[in-house]
Amino acid sequence: MSESNAFASLATLRLPSPCRLLSSACCPDKDLIVLISRLGGRDKLSLWKLQGSKKWEVDVGEDNDASATVADLVWSPSGQTIAVVRDSAHITLHSVQDGRIERCLSMPFQGTPETIETIVGVWWFAGHHSPASGVIPDIFKRNGVKTGSALSILKTLPLLDHLKENGENMTATDLFAFQGTQIRATSQRSMPAVIKQWPALVQSLEDASIAFPSQTRGAHDKMEESNSSAQAQEDEDSLLTLIDKRGALHCFLDGSYFLDLWFYLVDWHQLLRSNTPPLVVDIPLLATPKVRDFARLSSAARELTWYIMRVVNEVREGWFGSESFTGARDIGIKWVQALERRLREQYGHQNPDIILDLTTLLLTGSGSEGLTDFITSSEQNSERNLQKWDSSVTESLTRTRDHATARIIPALQRLHIILDEILGWSYMPQFMLFGLGADYVDSCLRMIERGIFISSWLAAEARRELGAFKQFLSFIRHETIVANPSTESHTNPDHDILEVNGYLISGLMASKIDEWFTGSLPQFNPGDLSYFRPPQSPGKALNEVLELARAALQDPSQTSWQPKVRSNDFSDLDKNLDALVQEIASRCQRIFAEASQAAARSATMSVDGGATPPQPNLALTEGACHFVRQRVVGNQNEPDHHLQYLAVHVSSEGQTYCE
Fold first, then answer.
1. CA distances (Å), 124 to each of 74, 142, 404, in order?
2. How far is CA 85 from the centre of its chain?
3. What is the sign of the dihedral through the CA atoms of 306, 311, 317 and 322?
4. Secondary structure in 3-state letters for 95-130
5. Where are the alpha helices (DSSP H) in 438-485?
6. What is the pLDDT of residues 224-235, one digit of tens each?
7. For residue 46, what are the β-bridge partners?
8. Bridge partner residues of 124 (DSSP)
9. Gap between the Cα atoms of 249 and 262, Å rounded
10. For residue 143, what is the enclosing H or E element?
């Protein structure tokens, strides 16, 4: 090419390794460019300034998708987010500030991963914001939250404690390396599939009433928060659109909320030709605030559900342990196993009964020779190990009690508020397109109420077991002092015999806390446990009971022995809180995933000048409605002085019912 026809060079970059340059690599409004390199069998994403300096470099994708390559990328309308599309049809949203992954998106393709079609085009359209004229300004900064709605109620509640993420641990490289030359691998906390597939907007802890990572933010953090707010406003109502080789169109509201739009267009080769007539897709529901309001509720419910799942997992790991550390319940089991081993190997006991020996020592103060030898000379009974045992169990049970009362129960209550509003919407014809089943939502509410009851029960049981464990450890320490020969006078025992005996029966080897993490899914109704079921035979009348009371007052000898009072036995009830939370998450995800198809149900596509309904990949269930139209007119002859006309399109055959 001659110099007269050559383009003017804006900058010259010297790269350490070969890189790929995509057509959308340049930022539309900033002097930034994204380059893709491949090192060690995986792609790396790097952001460069046109002056020649590199801002950051990160790995693309997650560890389980390390071999994926970058197919395309697109910039958000605000220029603060980069959407990277991999050949595995997964999308990652990267922050332009440091390259960290803000969100991982995936499209629910049908079939196996080998049959996933390649993405051939990606666009990120800016949202349309009509200027507000003649409208009272938002003085109170409600941010689109309607007064009296679920989100407005959540704003008035205290913020839930922030859960520390794995990525928040600072390393020496993060503290001392130059910000412009950092090379880091973007790692994200492993999320279950139910959370990954939950349709949601960009993370908003404020809507979910969850505290931010740090309440003591400096000027730099406040500046980043203001920039993030401005970015959210600019990206609001934007549409991230992708098309694959089949001609299927997929859309994400705000670049993150999957609208489940599966429009099968013409062949993609024909679609990209210049002589192909344009196809117009009309989504009337997006012009209303219903989709955004529901998306915000879905996002808040997702954050709360993920919050509950992490807290329950933290409590379970603290009690049962994990691959990296021993759980609090296993310390007592290992102590008993060490005692059994001592009695079997050194004293010839074939089947030692540890609980019987400890009970005999508790009641008589005299134990067997092997038990006395173990208490006085074993390493497990040293003061250091006893202190470690005490601190581990105390910390675990205290965490269980506090997390159940201060985190799990409030989060479930907030989730109940959201689903309660969804239940109200399910009865309104305006939200018929969202496919909300009132009975299904109501069953989720009952499960959440069951979770609140079981969590409160767990806190009470942890508080009771902590007291019994303290008494048991006091008993062990007292017997250790008594068994060791010393000139010092022995102090009187300060433990409760009944509490220690109860811990020996249920607590040392098999704790009742285990029932909250093992067993089947709870099915009971908390309301049925609040009263005693009447016996089959008729009881005494009120006047008979009063006569017995008066007789007891006149003759005190009748009060010396009280009659046996029956009580409810709840030991056979399933109380698996972990399984219940998993089921709540699965059911809630189905509700919001079904509702995300509302925009597709309202959409029409113009082909050759005529409007035709789209062909979604997921067919509507029989009897599901496509749209609802209503009109209310005044009529004095009606009981309520108004007459409502309702037209519902309920089947794919085009049948319409008017009423």
1. 7, 27, 42
2. 25
3. positive
4. ECCCCCEEEEEECCCCCCHHHCCCEEEEEEECCCCC
5. 438-483
6. 454 555 566 777
7. 35, 57
8. 240
9. 6
10. none
Residue identified by tokens 């200027």 is 131
**Other CB atoms within 10 Å distance of the CB of residue 3:** 5
Alpha-carbon separation of residue 130 from 127, 182, 236, 377, 647 (angstroms): 10, 41, 12, 81, 30
Cα separation of 313 and 407, whole Å? 13
Tracing tokens 């942890």 back to the chain, one arrives at 462
Q: Contact 122/85 with Cβ under 8 angstroms?
A: yes
Contact by Cβ (8 Å): 185, 94: no
In degrees, rounded to 5, the angle at the alpha carbon of residue 307 between the alpha carbons of residues 301 and 312 is 125
> Which residues does 457 contact at the CB level (< 8 Å), separation at least 6?
575
What architecture does CATH give domain 19-128+143-166+182-192+202-280? Beta Barrel (2.40)
H/E stretch holding 188 reads none
CB 47 within 8 A of CB 60: no
For the chain, give the mean pLDDT: 80
What is the model's pLDDT at position 618? Answer: 43
Pairing of strands 81-86, 70-75: antiparallel
Tokens (6 digits) for 533: 């079921």
CATH 2.40.128.630 domain locations along the chain: 19-128+143-166+182-192+202-280
Q: Which amino acid is at 316?
A: R
Helix (H, G, I), strand (E, B) or coil at 90: strand
Residues in the chain: 659
For residues 20 and 36, the answer to whether their CB atoms sit within 8 Å is yes
> Judging by beta carbons within 10 Å of its beta carbon (0-12, 13-18, 19+), is residue 195 exposed, middle or buried?
middle
Backbone angles phi, psi at 648, to 5 degrees: -125, 125
Tell me the per-residue pLDDT of 535-581, one tens digit each, with 9 for 90 and over: 555 667 888 888 888 888 888 776 666 666 566 677 788 999 999 99
Highest mean pLDDT of the ranges 69-83, 271-285, 487-501: 69-83
Return the amino acid letter for 505. I
List CB contacts of 548: < 8 A, sequence separation 6 or more: none
Q: Quick check: helix, strand or coil at residue 611?
A: strand
Q: Look up the pTM and report it.
A: 0.81
Tokens of 120: 């051939």
Classify residue 115 by burial, with Cβ atoms within 10 Å: 0-12, 13-18, 19+: exposed
Please give the C-alpha separations between residue 269 and each of 117, 242, 244, 273, 354, in angstroms, as whole numbers. Answer: 14, 15, 11, 7, 77
Nearest alpha-carbon partner for 99 in 82, 76, 87, 79: 82
Helices (H), 321-437: 328-346, 354-364, 369-377, 383-403, 409-426
- Please give the radius of gyration of the chain, using alpha carbons only, rounded to the nearest integer: 33
Sequence-separated (6 or more) residues with CB below 8 Å from residue 189:
165, 166, 167
Report the distance separating Cα 245 and Cα 71, nearest Å: 13
SS3 514: helix
> How many angstroms separate the Cα of 448 from the Cα of each of 347, 377, 415, 438?
53, 51, 8, 15
CB under 8 A, 24+ apart: contacts of 363-369: 363/497, 365/482, 367/479, 368/343
Distance CA 412, CA 422 (A): 15
